[in-house]
Amino acid sequence: MVADGLQVLFCGINPGLTTAATGHHFARPGNRFWPVLHLSGFTPRLLRPAEQRELLSYGLGITNVVARPTARADELTAEEYAEGGRLLTTKVTRLKPRWLAVVGVTAYRAAFADRTARVGPQQRTIGDTRIWVLPNPSGLNAHWTATTMAQEYARLRQAAGVDDHLPG
Fold this sequence. Notes:
With 168 residues, this protein is α/β, with parallel strands linked by helices. It has helices spanning 17-22, 33-39, 78-95, 105-112, 146-160, and strands at 8-12, 60-64, 99-103, 120-126, 129-134. A hairpin with a 2-residue loop joins strand 4 and strand 5 (129-134).
């Protein structure tokens, strides 16, 4: 779900089995992407995965590093990540989003051969597109709470100049 000239193109690792079955990104119950997107102010209300097309009206889109669905991201090979990084670079070059937000530091490191990357803005760009690495919203990522993830996502929202839709 992409378009030319987005403010932020979110990039998940790869479709999970629920996403593959429904056709909706971050569709697995327990994935915190949609709540965190709302808590961070990117959306004015909590969207359901089935409402993902509404993101385009906020200048946002979603894609993946790797297209192959798996139950867990650790089932992907190094070759799949590397090829995904090449394909993503081509997609970003064509679409020219202001920011590419890779959701998961491990995926970013594997896709772009950057073993030292950390969550936050990156030095690397793709053309004029800046890159920000966000924490993975999977329920398996216990290092980050919804609140701390929302704070990091909000840092990106502010840097990208996306309208503030903070709840409350």
